[in-house]
Amino acid sequence: MTEEDLFQTPEARTFYQQCKSVQSTFQQERSIKLKPGQITDRRVLMGIEKNQKTPQEWHSFLTALKTPSGIIRQVFKNIDNANTLLFGIEELDHRPTLKIYLEYWDMLASLIQQGKHDRQPFALNRGYKWQVGSTDDWQEDIYWCYPLLTLPEMHKRLANIAGFNSPILKYLLEPLVSHSRYIQGKPLIYLEIASEHNPRRSFDINCYSGEFTVSDVLPYLLELAKHWNVQQDLHQRLSVFSQHCLGHISGGIGRDEQPFLTIYIEERPL
Q1: How many helices (H) and strands (E) does the chain have?
Q2: For 238-251, how does the pLDDT look when each residue is reduced to its tens digit (9 = 90+)?
Q3: Treating both helix axes as pointing N-terminal to C-terminal, what angle do 55-64 and 69-78 enclose, rounded to 10 degrees?
Q4: What is the DSSP string of 74-97?
Q5: Distance CA 88, CA 90 (A)
Q6: How confident is the model at residue 207 (pLDDT cuts 50, 70, 90)?
Q7: Helices (H), 79-143
Q8: Quick check: 179 and 217 in contact, CB under 8 A?
Q9: What is the pLDDT of residues 170-199, one digit of tens each?
């Protein structure tokens, strides 16, 4: 799928082009979301440094993106200590879900370096999501980072979220996290997301420090995809990204109470 036909709806295309037009040193990530019997790949995540714009310029930019007014208020309530704004799109059945995240990585790193924070959960991201046409029905999620986890500790937390007998744990996470030669001794960044208003219960593992390519983890992904009856479709969609860097893996139980796994793939600078 080329960039030109990544999105089908005018709302998603406009949102994408407006975000893409802002110069940034952050990478753009494509992502592929798996569920039993279903794959969604019309997805993208873009990062823009907060210092690229003044507060007034950010307000104008969010307004131009047709961001719900309630989300704009929340963004400006929580933006002071953020260093990055992330913009995401997921298009399914010609109805896009649009997303804005605040990230506080610089704040966390500074606290750890000063000895003011170690292993306590830290609110690393705040995420705001809405569907086109339903601007009054938006949602907020907090992404809690668990710094300095050992691999056994991470494995235990993953099992609690995905379930000890989960296909996600069996086919992907156990061989990847517990046995992979690529990440032994690597400080992976681990987050959990739980919502008070829906059944979502999920994790996110930032894999950049592990220096994976998509081809490194493809055998594990295909085992899970085989169990979910999407193996051939996934192999076809990932083939064009085989030598790209694997950015994140997220998964767990979604708002629809169905298991899911999402692979984020580093694409290129904006």
Answers
A1: 8, 11
A2: 999 999 999 999 99
A3: 150
A4: HHHHH-TT--EEEEEEEEETTEEE
A5: 7
A6: confident
A7: 105-113
A8: no
A9: 998 888 766 555 555 566 789 999 777 778
